[in-house]
Amino acid sequence: xxxxxxxxxxxxxxxxxxxxxxxxxxxxxxxxxxxxxxxxxxxxxxxxxxxxxxxxxxxxxxxxxxxxxxxxxxxxxxxxxxxxxxxxxxxxxxxxxxxxxxxxxxxxxxxxxxxxxxxxxxxxxxxxxxxxxxxxxxxxxxxxxxxxxxxxxxxxxxxxxxxxxxxxxxxxxxxxxxxxxxxxxxxxxxxxxxxxxxxxxxxxxxxxxxxxxxxxxxxxxxxxxxxxxxxxxxxxxxxxxxxxxxxxxxxxxxxxxxxxxxxxxxxxxxxxxxxxxxxxxxxxxxxxxxxxxxxxxxxxxxxxxxxxxxxxxxxxxxxxxxxxxxxxxxxxxxxxxxxxxxxxxxxxxxxxxxxxxxxxxxxxxxxxxxxxxxxxxxxxxxxxxxxxxxxxxxxxxxxxxxxxxxxxxxxxxxxxxxxxxxxxxxxxxxxxxxxxxxxxxxxxxxxxxxxxxxxxxxxxxxxxxxxxxxxxxxxxxxxxxxxxxxxxxxxxxxxxxxxxxxxxxxxxxxxxxxxxxxxxxxxxxxxxxxxxxxxxxxxxxxxxxxxxxxxxxxxxxxxxxxxxxxxxxxxxxxxxxxxxxxxxxxxxxxxxxxxxxxxxxxxxxxxxxxxxxxxxxxxxxxxxxxxxxxxxxxxxxxxxxxxxxxxxxxxxxxxxxxxxxxxxxxxxxxxxxxxxxxxxxxxx
Length: 684
Prior knowledge:
Layout: H1 13-31, H2 42-63, H3 69-98, H4 101-115, H5 119-123, H6 132-135, H7 143-162, H8 172-191, H9 195-200, H10 206-216, H11 226-246, H12 259-271, H13 286-293, H14 295-313, H15 319-345, H16 352-359, H17 364-375, H18 385-391, H19 393-396, H20 402-407, E1 418-419, E2 434-438, H21 440-454, E3 460-464, E4 474-478, H22 486-499, E5 505-509, E6 529-533, H23 543-557, E7 562-566, H24 576-586, H25 591-594, E8 595-597, H26 599-616, E9 622-625, H27 627-631, E10 632-633, E11 636-638, E12 640-641, E13 644-645, H28 655-674, H29 680-683
Parallel strand pairs: 2-3, 2-5, 5-7, 7-9
Antiparallel strand pairs: 1-3, 4-6, 8-11, 10-11, 12-13
Helix pairs in contact: 1-2, 1-13, 1-14, 2-7, 2-10, 2-12, 3-4, 3-14, 3-15, 3-16, 3-17, 4-17, 8-10, 10-12, 11-12, 14-15, 18-24, 21-28, 23-26
C-alpha cells in the first residue's frame, strides 16, 4: 500500500509504525492463516492511513492556494507506479516459467487489469477473496491498489468542491455523510448476499478512506492531553487486535465487520496528532518504523512469492518454507525501497503533466504482457508436447457428455443424456435401468457407471447439476447467490424416478463434504456453499438427515428400487494432470504428483462418510461405497495409478479414472445389494 506524501507536515513515526502493524498482519495471515485468521483487516488499516494522509495533503494545499492537479498525480505516480510495475512484471515472468496454461491465462488477465488499476473489478467477478481459485492468482493482492487509485480519481474533485467559499469551514460534515452512506451500502450488500461486490468495489470501501479523511478535515479536535491520547491509542490497538483474532474468512465483511479495525486505526492516527501516547510507544520504535517504511514493497512482493512457491511445491508449504518465502519477500522489499521507491519518487515537479507522461507509460508493460498471456490462452505452445498433453487432460479426460448433460443441464433433454447399452445406440423410450443423480462429481463418475452398465446390457441416464447434491428438500446457495434451484431440481428428479418403471438402480454421487461444512484451506477449486433446509431457511440440515430423507422419498415412490451411494472422492492437495505437466516441463520429479498426503483428504472426507453410513445403516435396498477405501492407503491418497492420472483436477475423477475405478465399486455395491438383508456382506 502507498505511504502518501507527508509534504510540509511533521513526520510521524507512529504512522509508519501503524503501517508496519498493518503489513505484518497481512503477511502473517497469508503465510500462516491459522495464526491470524483476521489478518486481512490490515488492508482496512492501510485505507484509513491513506485517507488521513492524502486528505491532509489535499485540504492544506487547497487552503493555501497551492494545489496542482498535475503535481498531485505526478507525486502519486512516482510513489506507486515504479515498484508496482517492477513486481508485476517479475511475477509475470516467474508465472510464465512456473504456471501451466490454465493458471497462466488467469495471471495474464490479472496483470492486464492491474496495469489499468482495475484488479478489484476483475476480482469481483470471482467467487470471492477467499475462494481458493482466486487464491491461486499471484496478483490478487493488487485489488486494493485498484480501489485506492479509483478513490483518488474522485476524492480530489470532491475536496475541491468542499473547499469553495463557506463550504470550507463545514466540509467535514459532507465527508461524514458520505462515510455513513458508504458504510450503510456495504452492510446492506453484505447482509443481502452481495459480499463479494462489497469486498472489492470502491463505493463500499470508500468509508474506510473517509474514516481517516474526516480526521484530516478536522471533524474531531486532536486530543487535549496525554490521558485522552493514551486511552485512544490503547483502545485502537485493542480494536485492531480483536479484529485480527476474532474475524475469519466466514465473517460477514466488510460492512460492520470492518468497523473495529478501521475505528482502531482512526483512534491511533487521532491519538498521535498532537501527542506521543505511551500506549503506542511500540509503534515508534526503530525496527517497527523501518518495517513501516518498506511496507509498500513488502505488500507487493509477499503474495506472488507465496502463491508461486506453493505452485512449484504442488503441496502446502511447510512452516520452514513459508518462513523462507517471507524472509525473501522482506529482503526484496528492502532492495526495492532503496533502489526503486526512494530514487524514483524524487525529482522536480515543474511541468507536471509532461513529467507524468514519462511515468504512466510504464503501466503499458503489464497491460501488454498480461493481454498476451490471456489472449494466448496461457501460451500452451511453450510447453513440451508431453507436458501440454498432460495439462490438457482437464479438458480432454472428462465425461464426453459433460458439455450437454452437465454444463447445459437446464436445456438438455432426457434423450440427450441417455447412454445406450451398446456404444452409439440409444435405447428405446421404455426407460433406463440406471440413473446417476448428483452434482459435478456425479457427472465425473458417469463414464464409469456407463462402462459398468454396458457390461450388463443396461442403459444409463445422467441427471447432474452443478452445486446441487442429490438431496431433497434443501436450498443451496453458492458464492453468496441466493439460490441454485436445487430444491426444484431434486423434486423433478424424484418425479422422473417415480415415472420410469424400468429403473432398477439409482447411483447417488456428490462432493458430499461440501454440503456439510466449509471448504478446507488447502483446496484449489472449492466454492463457498451454504445449505439450508428448504422448509426452514437459515437452518442447516445434518447431511445424514438430509440424505436419509432423500432415500425415504425414493423408497416411497419406488419401494423396489435399489440405491448405491458413492461416498466422497478424496479431495487432493494437488491436481495430478497439472502437477505432472509442470514436473515434466520443469524437469522435476513426477513422483510428487502420484500421491498426496492422506491427512487433509481424509480429514475432509471422513465426517461426510460417517454421515452417509448413518443414513444408509439398516436401510433395505441401499448400500454405500467409499472411494477412500481404494485410493487412500499408507498415509497417502493416489492421484496417479500406473503412471496415468485418475483425476482431471484435484477432486473430480477423470473419465479414464472413472472407467477404471467405478465398475469395481459398483460390483461391490451390487453384490451387497443382492446379499440377504442382515448378513455381514450386506451391512459392510
